[in-house]
Specification:
- With 393 residues, the chain is mainly α.
- The chain has one domain.
- The protein is built from 14 helices and five strands.
- The strands form two sheets. A three-stranded antiparallel beta sheet has the order 1-4-5, with no helix packed on it. Strands 2-3 form a two-stranded antiparallel sheet.
- Helix 3 runs antiparallel to helix 12, helix 5 crosses helix 10 and helix 6 packs across helix 9.
- The longest helix has 37 residues.
- The radius of gyration is 35 Å and the shape is globular.
- The two termini are 53 Å apart.
Length: 393
């Protein structure tokens, strides 16, 4: 809308006298709602209404005296013709920040897990006592969190008896899965253990179907075929196959399925963060595992094995034990921090990608011989895990 105002300098000055002083000095004037009559020689009485704000363009030498007879023009335009003002989209920024946070969690989780598996395998090669190794991992994590709470680096969780009762089945499942996986890696290659553990989604579906009564779409069940087939092919073609190692990985799969189900349920009804939740889980698992570790292996075997490892490896062995214990806690803690932020499905996808990084890195570090048919079985199993995650969406 264009309104042209023509008048003499004295008439214009009289008009501007009606405006407040501040408005006279403002280069651009805005009226929230302006109803004006447009003056034109052709249409002297035509009126124009608008509920949109009008803006006046600045006048040259506004407020100064003009020679008599000079015409001044002021142009007005509607607000929707002005340039739009960009406001920051807080929701978009929050979503981007959340994605970045989860990405950092995943990258840290995978890196810590790779380092743990390498040092864990080095320790088990020199010190074949998986029950004590598992105990030291839980003890290191418990000590780290107790010191963090005492130094107030991390706020201690507020728990009660009901919390610990609900945590008990999670701790039992976690203890079984942890020890079984360590026993498996003490007997077979790290890559083989994780190939078998990539079949965890199959156990998840079976447990959810027959124990929890949950039903899934047909594509979910079909995705189990390549998972089971790939794991079977990799196991049959494994050069260093060991039944104890194979069964340890299978038991670990089943135990961790129950742990994840119970953990997600427990984290929904408690105000304890993922970091503190896993810390409490480590402490309770340590109390459960310690008497069994003493009964199965015992201090005499540990002392003899420790002396032999030090004599063969040297002081570096102490660093290996400390590293595998600390990195075990850190990678699990970050995984629970991730689980606190994402859905179980996204967590499952991240877990699958983690196994790929562990398998590849362990083959490179330990020079594990891999036959083409064995690699094909691993690839099929991992592909089936990816299809499973897509089918559950």
């Amino acid at each position: 809308m264009i309104c042209s105002l023509k008048s003499s300098s004295s008439a214009f000055a009289a008009t501007t006298d009606l405006l407040p002083p501040k408005s006279r000095m403002t280069p651009t004037l805005c009226f929230a709602t302006l109803r004006c009559n447009s003056f034109s020689p052709k249409t002297p009485s035509s009126s124009l209404s608008s509920i949109k704000p009008l803006y006046l363009t600045p006048l040259e030498s506004f407020g100064s005296a003009k020679p008599r007879g000079m015409s001044l023009k002021a142009k007005a335009y509607e607000a929707d013709r002005s340039e739009s003002v960009a406001f920051p989209d807080h929701e978009a920024r929050a979503a981007a920040a959340q994605k970045l946070k989860i990405g950092i969690y995943f990258a840290t989780w995978w890196a810590l897990n790779v380092v743990f598996n390498i040092y864990n395998k080095k320790v088990l090669n020199a010190f074949p006592y998986p029950w004590l190794t598992s105990t030291l991992s839980l003890a290191a994590g418990s000590l780290i969190m107790l010191l963090s709470w005492a130094a107030r680096v991390t706020a201690a969780p507020k728990t009660d008896l009901e919390f610990w009762k609900a945590l008990a089945p999670v701790a039992v499942a976690h203890t079984i899965g942890h020890v079984a996986a360590t026993v498996s890696m003490s007997k077979v290659a790290v890559s083989f253990t994780h190939i078998i553990k990539s079949g965890e989604p199959a156990f998840s579906v079976l447990v959810s179907r027959f124990v929890l009564g949950e039903r899934f779409p047909v594509p979910v069940y079909l995705s189990l075929v390549p998972i089971i087939g790939g794991c079977a092919l990799a196991a049959l073609t494994e050069l260093n196959f060991d039944m104890t190692g194979f069964m340890g990985a299978m038991i670990s799969n089943l135990a961790f399925v129950f742990r994840n189900i119970f953990s997600k349920r427990g984290m929904k009804v408690t105000s304890v963060s993922g970091m503190n939740y896993y810390a409490c889980l480590s402490m309770l698992s340590l109390l459960i595992l310690l008497p069994f570790a003493i009964g199965v292996e015992g201090p005499q075997l540990w002392a003899a094995g420790w002396h032999e490892a030090i004599s063969h490896i040297g002081p570096h062995f102490v660093w290996w034990v400390a590293a595998q214990s600390v990195f075990y806690h850190l990678y699990n803690q970050v995984s629970y921090m991730s689980l606190d932020e994402i859905s179980p499905l996204t967590f499952s996808i991240g877990n699958t990608m983690k196994r790929i990084s562990v398998i590849v890195s362990s083959i490179i570090v330990f020079h594990t011989p891999v036959q083409p048919i064995n690699a094909l079985g691993a690839a099929i199993a991992i592909l089936g895990t990816f299809l499973y995650s897509q089918a559950k969406q």
